[in-house]
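User: I'm writing a short methods note and want a consistent example. For ATP phosphoribosyltransferase, I'll paste the sequence; you return only the structure tokens, no commentary, since I'll be parsing the reply automatically.
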Amino acid sequence: MASSILPRFSLIFYAPPAAVAACKTAIFKAGAGRYPGTGNYTECCWSTPGTGQFRPGDSANPHIGKVGELEEVPEVRVETLCVGEHIARQAVAALKTAHPYEEPAYHVIKLEDF
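Assistant:
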């Protein structure tokens, strides 16, 4: 199947700065961040720093913070392209393995081709 007709997805995730490189390595190895076409671009993404906030529940095992206490931490938002649903699913699985959080925050958005 030609890449121009495969559905495209945007994978967006949030990670602590120290974990971003490992997360990016994992998703890129799974096929994320590749743009179809003659340029053969790989490992493409966009990143920006920000602040994450969460309060771990009673049964949580947080990587950062304490159960029941509101936590604010520096995080990096990373966005990349996944061409094909199978690549998006592989990238999410790789992210979950590489990410240090008990429940990593991420979004997968199906893109329209205009």
